[in-house]
Amino acid sequence: MGQHTTYTLLAGVPVELTRKNIRRMHLRVRCEDGGVTLSAPLGVPRSMLERFVGDNADWIAQKQREMQALPKRQLHRYRMGETIWLWGERRILAESAERTEGFRLQDGRAFLWLPPNAAEARRIYFAHEAYRRELACAIGEILPGLSAQTGLAAAEWRIKNMKTRWGTCNIRARRIWLNLQLAAKPRRCLEYVLLHELLHLVERYHNRRFYALLDRYMPSWRETRSLLNRSQGNL
After folding, report:
1. pLDDT tens, position by position, 22-51
2. Which ranges of 15-115 would DSSP assign to H, the alpha helix?
3. Nearest to 230 by CA among 107, 71, 94
4. What is the pTM of this model?
5. Across all residues in the chain, what is the average pLDDT?
6. Range of the domain at 177
7. Residue 169 CB contacts under 8 Å (≥ 6 apart), including other chains
8. 196, 165, 180, 159: which is closest to 235 by C-alpha?
């Protein structure tokens, strides 16, 4: 039997339930809409799922209130004069003097030039590719220092535009994924996410040991996590 997803009520809470070949239950509140997702081992009875969600009902409600208080995500069109974000700071998109098609981030400024009839999707593509280069450069600068500090090293890292997570870690492959949106956040937020995912190489779960490691290597991680989730910048 493979992975199977259903939508159901558990302890009075609407839940997206996914049964799959895992050892423990994992509960999450999606940041984009406050929806609740539960991943559970294949053989866990419904009564246990009900009890697990019920025991975490207060936590779910608190997380949903926090999600409602977060700044609403701005939809960027990348047109001249538009306000965009780079490393947590506002930038005004200006027309490039170079009549070369593309988007450039240079000296903390943003420039774009495209033919007047260019499709909006092309503007977004060029912008996101520029952000990808900016983020990749920052990762290359930050990650070696964190690896030296912790003694942990990923086999590789990659970037993709994710909706619900700032980063993920494939422990078996020792591969870290970083959200493209981090290029719009303050740079120390990227450092926190990188450290968070590195530590998953030695501790899979968000348990006491994991948070003790975060405290050891980044005592201010709670403040940085709050900044990451509440700052306005996005792509």
Report:
1. 889 999 888 767 889 999 999 899 999 999
2. 46-55, 57-69
3. 71
4. 0.73
5. 90
6. 83-230
7. 154, 175, 176, 177, 197, 198, 200, 201
8. 180
